[in-house]
Amino acid sequence: MRLDTIASLVVGAAVGLVIGLGGYTFLYARGSSYLTDNPAACANCHLMQEQYDGWVKSSHRATAACNDCHTPEGFLPKYLTKASNGFWHSFAFTTGYFPEPVRIGGRNRAISEQACRTCHRRIVDAIEGPSHDQAPLSCLGCHRRVGHL
Amino acid sequence: MARAPRRPPAVSPPPQPRRRYLPTVIIALTAAVLAAGGAALLINIFERKQEARNPFYRVVELDDQTTDPALWGKNFPLQYDAYRRTVDQQRTRFGGSEAVPRTPTQVDPRSVVAQSRLEEDARLKTMWAGYAFAKDFREDRGHAYMLEDQTFTERQAVVQQPGTCLHCHASVYTVYRQLGEGDLIKGFEHMNQMAFSEARKLVTHPVACIDCHDPGTMQLRVTRPGFIEGMQALKAAQGLKDYDVNKMATRQEMRAYVCGQCHVEYYFKGAEKRLVYPWAKGLQVENILAYYDDIGFKDWTHADSNAPLLKAQHPEFELWNQGIHARSGVACADCHMPYKREGALKISDHHVRSPLLNINLACQTCHRWPETEIKDRAEAIQGRTFALRHLAMEALVELINDIKAERASGKSDAELATAQDFQRRAQFFLDFIEAENSMGFHAPQEAARILGTSIDFSRRGQVSLRDRSNHQQ
Prior knowledge:
Chain A is 58% helix and 0% strand. By secondary structure, chain A is mainly alpha-helical. The mean pLDDT of chain A is 88. The model of chain B has no long low-confidence stretch (mean pLDDT 91). By secondary structure, chain B is mainly alpha-helical. Chain B has helices at residues 16-52, 69-75, 77-83, 117-120, 123-127, 146-152, 155-158, 166-169, 173-179, 184-192, 196-200, 225-237, 245-248, 251-260, 285-295, 316-321, 324-327, 332-336, 359-362, 371-408, 413-434, 444-472, and strands spanning 100-101, 112-113, 267-269, 274-276, 300-301, 308-309, 339-342, 345-348. In chain B, the strands form four sheets. In chain B, strands 1-2 form a two-stranded antiparallel sheet.
């Protein structure tokens, strides 16, 4: 009985320590800001500072923030994307193991392509026409700089 | 029933106490690992946040007298570290230096030099016959060698060089101020009139931090009188009076101007050997030639043709100004000192070098193509320029040989004046690209136009000789 008490105390303390340390790290790293749509959060770690600076001066500033083009529509897909990118970006930034200059990956590029079409549906339809035989055109191939350099 | 005999004997101790605490141990160990990981992450985030604050530890006080870059390096170790790497000798296809071993002598203690350009292309000797460059002309090395290579070049033995050379071969800012008792321009004028060997004793370092940075604010600044006065002349010609580069240039302009302090065409004016950048009519090659023609300037008289000639120096700033990168607002530092990341800190790479040795950071920030593709494109431009340079060099050497032959057959300078003038033009245009350190890349079409014009001048010079001999028949 006495051993049981000690064991549960140890487990309780250990788990408490993890929660406390993890919670503080979350607060210290401004973890909750990443759950918002505030574009400044994306430049928290300064890695996206150039992209952020570019967006501030871009044509899309008034109508679209980071999440509008870099996350898909719908609550669940949006936060799954945020979780995935959040993990891998943190992993790369923490380990320092990533190539420069940073580039968008295939999955995220597809999300941005889709975002163009969400807002600019009518003009894209007019360009592509009713036929869907051909592979869809790429918006970003020509308009890569509309959001930021 | 059959299992009964397999039961452990009653005497052995029951394993329950260990098993009962196993989950506790596992949870505790997992929690410990997680806590350690959390602490490590916390510390990493803390460090990154500190880095991002751009910490600057004032270890030493810097003022307008601090020339020694090692002292600046104590406050800015990352920048200093990269700056020191300009000792690297690495070739690109059309530029860069190779380390060539040599036996040190009493007069020249260098054990390593760059490859000789005169050996690579003997036509340069014909082009510069009668001038010190025909004696010794080597590929440029990194900033770290600028003072050493100027001190020990064999050109020093051929011609008495003035103290003016140190304007761009040494960290000369504090010395100018001392010589001028606080007045930069007066000190500049003073040193111009000294002999090189005498002035050389006053300087210690090649280009250093103080030459481009304000010691109080670290802002970029221009410290070279030649550039200050050259820009004044250029802007005055464009209708802007009393231009002060240190007060009126934008930050991005300064990121090119600090390099333009030295990477330019120049000449030494008059007996006082004043360094002048010939920009009063503009920065293009014909503007500069027109300026020299107006004042009747020549660097030397050609040994074979007796033509009054000009030596173009290294007009990187002028040629870059004619190119698409300059037009797009891309400064020298953007490609030659691109930003790099040290942790969460972004600094400019003070290892000044060819962008072709650092394509990733120098080019790919804007040009999103694979490295090999970018390199191929740059080398295609350089290869085409090199081919045109070859044609221009052949044409020039043929013109020189023709004039030489005419002189040998007794023609007077008056009779050969037209051909000699064409040689002056052809040679200055060719040298403008030959001496420029990008093999045309800084402004490809302008480089091709200049070389094409040079070929035309050489051939017209030859035609002028033929016409004259026809007349006399």
